[in-house]
Amino acid sequence: MPSDITMDKLVALCKSRGFIFPGSDIYGGMANSWDYGPLGVELKNNVKQAWWKMFVQSRLDMVGIDAALVMNPKVWEASGHVATFTDPLVECKQCHERYRADQIDLAAPCQKCGNKGTFTEPASFNLMLKTFIGPKEDATAVAYFRPETAQAMFVDFPLVLQSSRKRVPFGIAQIGKAFRNEITPGNFIFRTREFEQMEIEYFVHPSDWEVQFEAWHKRMYEWMAFCGLKKDQVHDLEVPAEERAHYSKRTVDIEYDFPFGRKELYGIAYRTDFDLSNHAKATGKEITYTDPITNEKYVPHVIEPTFGVDRTVLAVLVSAYSEEQATTADGETDTRIVLRFPKALAPIKIAILPLSKKDELSDLARPLAERLAKKWRVDYDETQSIGKRYRRQDEIGTPYCITVDFESLEDKAVTVRDRDTMQQERIKIDALEEYLAAKFES
Ligand code: GAP
Predict the structure, then answer these.
(1) Measured on CA atoms in the order 222, 227, 228, 233, is the torsion positive or negative?
(2) Which of 195, 229, 251, 254 gets mutated to test ligand 1 (max ligand atoms within 8 A of its CB)?
(3) Which tops the pLDDT comparison, 190 or 3?
(4) Where is 234: in which H helix or E strand?
(5) Residue 267 Cβ contacting ligand 1 at under 6 Å
């Protein structure tokens, strides 16, 4: 675990700087609901865009979809979620607190009231969030918010195959919200009832699954390196058969050392032909693939690398966080908090900081900020001392601060400060865009 970071510090920083707020805050909040603020939405969007670029846009064997969130309820019967997407629930008979039976010691006292031997027998609790579609609220109108984005990739497989004319092996990707009525949400954005997933269903010949599993597992590590996650804080867990999801023949959980312990970040599963075959059975439609060269007809098997967006954001924040002793621009020594985001993920790329609020500096700095904002996300800040402004930008992980001073009026140059090294360079305004473009490419 990174030594500097605690969850209390991170949650406070996220709130004060506008990354992540408690949801419905002015109503006293809503348990385990979080809103992404102005910086959080930039960070999250950067994560999703980079993921899409790495796994969809830059690969000829991948296509994407964006499917409806509420699907035909029969989908969830065929997929096995209605019958088996459950967690074991126990309740304390004294205080009625509820727990996941697999996450507590049932012989120990209740964590809330301290009574011993008061737990009910574990009962299966279905995690799907139910709703009603249309004006009638009866059994015929029941529908579910999707508990995973994956099913749409299986249900749409025939139409994607037909329209995109891809050949196996190929994959379908989707980014979107998923919902689970978790018994014990918690740990900030780690486990919530509403979250986002980035998922890939990669369709392969049944004989090819092991090779493809290894290849995708390796690519997941390349992604984590891109996100700045340190290798020694990431761990594989081979999930034993009795703990695997109902559809999986092999699952590796990729765990990360969060400040609250080592927990699942991502997963990769071999889903066999479970989903395509079950949807074929349930609909009476043939869902197969015919190899155009060998004419072999078969049901493709599936490798599924799955990534939680919110857990990625949390791991990126944890990895980026550092504290160090530094001398401020005003000559004092203090603790510098820096979010060392990879530049591609940083919510704000450049801060323009005129040394004073005087009109002659604003007249130079504002048009400069507007010009750069056409290419990068820019912050413009002209209040407080320059030292305080640098610290604020360090705390939100801005890679470059640009100071416009009175000399700039004469030499038509500005000072560029690097977040990580705190080195400053004087750059001509005319050459600034080229200079920054090279920096962001490196
Ligand atoms: N389609 C497979 C699937 O959904 P999963 O392991 O249940 O597998 C995939 O979920 C990923 O979604 C997890 O590795 C995690 O990153 C994220 N995730 C799952 N439940 C979550 C929750 N309650 N809150 C936030 N993220 C969650």
Answers:
(1) negative
(2) 195
(3) 190
(4) strand 234-238
(5) yes
What region does 251 belong to: left with phi over 0, alpha with psi -120 to 50, or beta?
A: beta
Number of Cα atoms under 13 Å in the Cβ half of residue 45: 11
pLDDT value of position 3: 61
In the DSSP assignment, the letter for residue 121 is P
In this structure, are strands 350-354 and 400-404 parallel, antiparallel, or unpaired?
Answer: parallel
**CA gap 182, 313 in Å, rounded:** 20
What's the DSSP call for residue 92? Answer: B
Tokens standing for residue 52:
């899409």
Q: How much of the chain is in helix, strand and coil states, percent to nearest 5?
A: 35, 30, 35
Q: What is the spatial distance between Cα 423 and Cα 273, in angstroms, rounded to a whole number?
A: 55
Q: Residue 426 pairs with which residues in a beta bridge?
A: 415
Rounded CA-CA distance 350/436 in Å is 9
Q: Which atom of ligand 1 is nearest to the CA of 306?
A: 9
Convert the pLDDT of each residue in 261-296 to its tens digit: 999 999 999 999 999 999 999 999 999 999 999 999
pLDDT, average across residues 135-149: 94
> End-to-end distance of the chain based on CA atoms, in angstroms?
28
150 lines ligand 1 (CB under 6 A): yes
Residue 169 Cβ contacting ligand 1 at under 6 Å: no
Residue 81 has pLDDT above 50, yes or no: yes
327-356, pLDDT tens digit by residue? 766 677 888 999 999 999 999 999 999 999
Decide whether any atom of ligand 1 lies within 6 Å of the 182 Cβ.
Answer: yes
Number of H helices, E strands in the chain: 13, 23
Which residues, 6 or more positions from 377, have their beta carbon under 8 angstroms from its beta carbon?
Answer: 42, 347, 348, 349, 350
pLDDT per position as a tens digit, 217-251: 999 999 999 999 999 999 999 999 999 998 999 99
Percent over 90 (pLDDT), the chain: 94
Kindly compute the dihedral angle of the four CA atoms of residues 436, 225, 9, 15, in this order, to the nearest 10 degrees: 60
Query: If DSSP codes are grouped into helix, strand and coil, which group holds residue 227?
Result: coil
User: Which atom from ligand 1 is nearest to the alpha carbon of 150?
Assistant: 1
Residue 255 CB–ligand 1 contact under 6 Å: no
Percent of the chain clearing pLDDT 70 (strictly above): 99
What burial letters (b/e) apply to 402-441, b meaning 16+ CB within 10 Å?
bbbbeebeeeebbbbbebeeeeeeebebeebeeebeeeee
- Residue from 186, 160, 197 nearest 33 by CA: 186
